[in-house]
Structures are given as structure tokens and as C-alpha cells.
Design goal:
By secondary structure, the chain is an alpha+beta fold. The protein has one domain (2-99). It is 18% helix and 42% strand. The protein contains 2 helices and 8 strands, in the order ββββββββαα. A hairpin with a 2-residue loop joins strand 6 and strand 7. The longest helix has 11 residues, at 76-86.
């Protein structure tokens, strides 16, 4: 998917997918899948898709919704917050956010 937001082009085909999280299966109205990406220039964004009862739902008629998809730009801090909520892989944190990690 490609989307231009505030003059910046976000493209899932050219960016690097860093992490993925999902809920349920694509036939479920509440299904969602989110993928965290980093562009070649270091910008972060989230690509998401979901069913008719997900946050990616779109209006398809009067009082009707269907599944949809979207790209959401993230700050570096927003990407870190998303990772903390959606992955437990320490390798991802160490690769992209080593400067933000401290020993407890």
C-alpha cells in the first residue's frame, strides 16, 4: 500500500517490515493485523488492516461498515510504544532502540 501524508510517501513495498501483530482471522469482523515499518530514511509507520468491527472499518453504505486498511505515521517514540505493546522479541528493540534501553 502507498499513501502520501503531509507530503511524505509511505510505501509498504519499499520500507522494511520490523514487526507484525494480529488478532483473529481475516473472516472475523473483529480481525485486525498491524505491521510496523521503517522507511529507508528512518521514518516509522504502521500499516493496518481489519474487519468491519475493527479500528480499520470503513463506511460502505448507510449504517454499514466493511473492512479497510490504512497507513499511520509514527514518531520514533510512537514506534517504540507500539513495539512494547505488540512484541516480546528483544532483538527488535536492540536493533532499532538500543539507545533507549537500560538495564533494570
Amino acid at each position: 500500500m502507498k499513501k502520501i501524508i503531509r507530503g511524505l510517501r509511505y510505501n509498504t513495498d519499499t520500507a522494511k517490515r520490523v514487526a507484525t501483530d494480529s488478532y483473529s482471522n481475516s473472516g472475523d469482523f473483529q480481525y485486525w493485523c498491524e505491521e510496523l515499518y521503517r522507511t529507508r530514511k528512518g521514518n516509522w509507520f504502521l500499516y493496518g488492516e481489519g474487519g468491519a468491527m475493527s479500528k480499520y472499518a470503513r463506511s460502505v453504505g448507510q449504517n454499514e461498515t466493511g473492512g479497510g486498511e490504512d497507513i499511520i505515521p509514527l514518531t520514533r517514540g510512537g514506534a517504540l510504544v507500539w513495539l512494547e505493546a505488540h512484541t516480546t522479541d528483544p532483538g527488535v528493540f536492540e536493533e532499532y532502540f538500543i539507545d533507549a534501553i537500560k538495564d533494570a
